[in-house]
Amino acid sequence: MSWLQQHAPGTYHRILFDDRISVERYGVGNAIAQPYNHTILPLASAKDKELQISWGIADFQHRFGRLPQGMWLPETAVDVDTLEVLVDNGIAFTILAPWQAVDDDLDVTVPYRVPLPSKRSIVVFFYQGDLSGSISFDPGTTANADAFVTETLLPRYPEDHDYDPLILVASDGELYGHHQEWRDKFLEYLLNGSSAEAGISTTYPARYLLHHPVQDEVGVVEQTSWSCHHGVERWRGDCDCCAGDGTWKKYLRAGLDGLATAFDELFDDYWQAKGIPPKKVRLNYIEVLLGKQPVDTFVEGLLQRTLNWAEARRARLLLEAFYNRQRMYTSCGFFFDDPSGLEVRYNIASAARAVDLVDQALGISLERHLLPPLRRVHSQKTGETGEDVYIDILVAHHRR
Ligand SMILES: [Zn+2]
């Protein structure tokens, strides 16, 4: 969204506007929030789960001017702890793949309530698995909106029903016009023409919930996702999603986890020594990221006093390091087959930046927590290790 805001402001404002119009017309908006850094939450620490969800909500509220009801989880990766944190933060529903439900006889034309250990619950919509798959991967399905309605959509509605069946599709936004040409026009005509002609009304999760109380309950399968059929293995090790040997993912994650643990200890000690709860600092730093207040004002507000130059600089650097320590977990870095891609480079660059900023702030090098595992991240394509990439990034940085 921050990229769209800068580089495609027209699109950005149409998204905001459409949500506002939806609120005016139906009482609930159609936009849903997401965690801040596209982190695989079941693999994140409890603190990071809380942070990612809390920052995602703050970012959403800042842009849309309202609190979100729903949250889309990165790769729909889920575990019960993540659902608990969603509920802690006032999120009412999420969307998952049908195979993430415990029940094999799942009826995906209705949402379910998922009971949680805390005696609370969250609503889960399960999308149409095969339909979403063919929309995403078979261009023939979406060549013609009229044909799509009669041949693909209508046969999916149960013949006899005394309720409003919901046909829910989940696909990447960039599918429409970017991955597949003209599909933006397909979608436009489907939503504004062909579906209405066939007597199908369009809706979205928050609006559906207004008039359809959720009756059925189901459990979710721990540590599952929409784009790996081996749980969440794709983002931490070798599984059949990976064409080569995916073991490098284990070492990349070990390096990042080692750095994160060492970083958190320094970060927490720093703020505790100043009498400020580190959690408060972490959660509220989003105010600075959203441009609501300058970082120096933010830190002075926490400490209730003015800072000297050196103190202000140290706090600023540590906070920026914390931002990069979150960013280094971006899921795309673990997604593909070989670690030579720019996605892995992005994660390692974020980690390198965090290391550098801590060094500048405190004169402590955290490299030893990151580099030994990175040495074992090995590219079959280039022969480079994760450490080579790390050094390459440092060299490029110093040349600038
Ligand atoms: Zn897999």
List the helices and strands and how they pair.
Elements: H1 2-7, H2 9-26, H3 46-64, H4 80-88, E1 93-96, E2 112-115, E3 121-126, H5 129-137, H6 145-153, H7 183-197, H8 205-211, H9 248-273, H10 278-284, H11 286-289, H12 295-303, H13 309-327, H14 332-335, H15 342-362, H16 367-374, H17 386-399
Parallel strand pairs: 1-3
Antiparallel strand pairs: 2-3
Helix pairs in contact: 3-4, 3-10, 6-7, 9-16, 13-15, 15-17
The protein binds zinc ion (ZN).
Residues 228-230, 233-234, 239-241 line the site of zinc ion.
Characteristic terms for this protein:
globular, mainly alpha, binds zinc ion, about 400 residues, three-stranded mixed β-sheet, single chain, 3 strands, 7-stranded beta/alpha barrel
Commentary on this structure:
- This protein is mainly alpha-helical and 400 residues long.
- The protein folds into two domains: 32-232, 7-stranded beta/alpha barrel (Alpha-Beta Barrel), CATH 3.20.110.20; 236-399, no CATH class.
- The chain contains 17 helices and three strands.
- The protein has helices at 2-7, 9-26, 46-64, 80-88, 129-137, 145-153, 183-197, 205-211, 248-273, 278-284, 286-289, 295-303, 309-327, 332-335, 342-362, 367-374, 386-399, and strands at 93-96, 112-115, 121-126.
- The chain has a three-stranded mixed sheet with strand order 1-3-2.
- It is globular and about 70 Å long.
- The model has no long low-confidence stretch (mean pLDDT 96).
- Bound molecules: zinc ion.
- Zinc ion is lined by residues 228-230, 233-234, 239-241.
